[in-house]
Design brief:
The protein is mainly α. 96% of the residues lie in helices and 0% in strands. The protein contains 2 helices and no strands. The longest helix is centred in the first third of the chain and has 82 residues. The chain starts with a helix and ends with a helix.
Length: 167
């Protein structure tokens, strides 16, 4: 009987230590899940901002296309004006000025388009990280549920063991 009591006490101590270990793991998982949630929220906000920038980039790309069309038309007009230069010198000067402004704007928009394209590429990487964080978060939530279930089972076994040792 004494040996059985000693054995049950040792088993109870071992199970209490195991319960403490699972409780610490559960706390760590909860903290990690909260941190991942914060990172997920931040990544989602960044994703929304990046989507806005992508839309802006697409609008600028459309504007660049329109300006390129306009530029081609202006170049055609410019050729016609060069043929008429002897008669319309003053008109030609204005068209050249307009053309230079358009080319400057196109250069600026192309630069902006390249910058926004690089930003869009970075955004794709962030979206991939977001998916990875979401997947990891789901796994951690599953593991936390398993750990909690294990803790509850261990508590029940410990309680039953304790109750049985009292009888």
């Amino acid at each position: 009987m004494e040996a059985r009591n000693r054995s049950l006490n040792e088993e109870m101590i071992r199970m209490q230590k195991q319960l403490e270990l699972y409780s610490e793991k559960d706390a760590a998982h909860c903290e990690n899940a909260a941190q991942l949630k914060e990172e997920l929220d931040l990544a989602q906000r960044e994703s929304i901002q990046l989507k806005r920038e992508v839309e802006k980039c697409e609008k600028i790309a459309a504007e660049v296309n329109d300006l390129e069309k306009e530029n081609r038309k202006l170049e055609q007009d410019n050729k016609q004006l060069e043929r008429d230069v002897r008669r319309w010198k003053t008109g030609c000067d204005k068209a050249e000025s307009d053309l230079e402004c358009s080319q400057t704007r196109i250069t600026e928009l192309e630069r902006e388009n390249r910058r926004l394209t690089r930003t869009a590429e970075r955004n794709r990487g962030l979206e991939e990280r977001l998916r990875d964080f979401e997947k990891e978060n789901k796994e951690l939530v599953k593991q936390t549920a398993i750990d909690r279930k294990t803790n509850n089972t261990l508590r029940e076994v410990l309680l039953l063991t304790h109750l049985m040792s009292d009888y």
